[in-house]
Amino acid sequence: MNYLAHAYLSFNQPAILAGNLISDFVKGKQLNLYPEDVRKGIILHRAIDSFTDEHAATREAKNIFKPHYRLYSAAFIDVTYDHFLANDWQQFTDDSLSAFSQEVYNSLDKYLDVFPEPFRQMFPYMKQQNWLYNYRNRSGIERSFAGVVHRSAYLTDSQTAFKLFEENYNKLQQYYVDFFPALHKYAFNTLQNL
């Protein structure tokens, strides 16, 4: 899952949210450098990623991108799932997604001192460009795909990924529908046991 899902699956707990969003920038034993509740968010993020990667719907969804993007297919699926979450009327209306996004940015502002440097540098762009809300729009997904390519070691083309997303939109949406309720339940139960 990408930033919107990790924020949503922090269940309105600010320290968990901070850990959940910085987790990709925290390697190995660096985990022990963080306050306990932030550590729980980092651990929750890792559990969410493992569950997502192992789920049958995600494995099938990755096959859409795999011929062109191999290992990076998972990153494109993460962005895709955030798009469908942003447009899931059982989770968000347009107004509630906008309010949720602002609440996340405001909450994260209080944790700037624990951000790893790469996340600290990225966070102002996330806020200014309102990444969380813009997962709702296809143009936001196109930019997010370009971001995946920009951060990758060897990819150069994001347009093929966006074309695959457009061509397989309904199929990808069904993978999300088959997957997300199970992830929500898993994340909630995991957090209760941390």
Automatic annotation (TrEMBL):
Q: Keywords on this record? A: Hydrolase, Lipid biosynthesis, Lipid metabolism
User: InterPro entries this protein is in?
Assistant: ACP_PD (IPR007431)
Output this protein's name.
DUF479 domain-containing protein
One GO process term, biological-process aspect: fatty acid biosynthetic process
Offer an example of a GO molecular function term for this protein: [acyl-carrier-protein] phosphodiesterase activity
- Can you tell me which residues the record assigns to a coiled coil? none
Query: What single Pfam family name could you report for this chain, choosing any that match?
Result: ACP_PD
Q: Which residues cross the membrane?
A: none
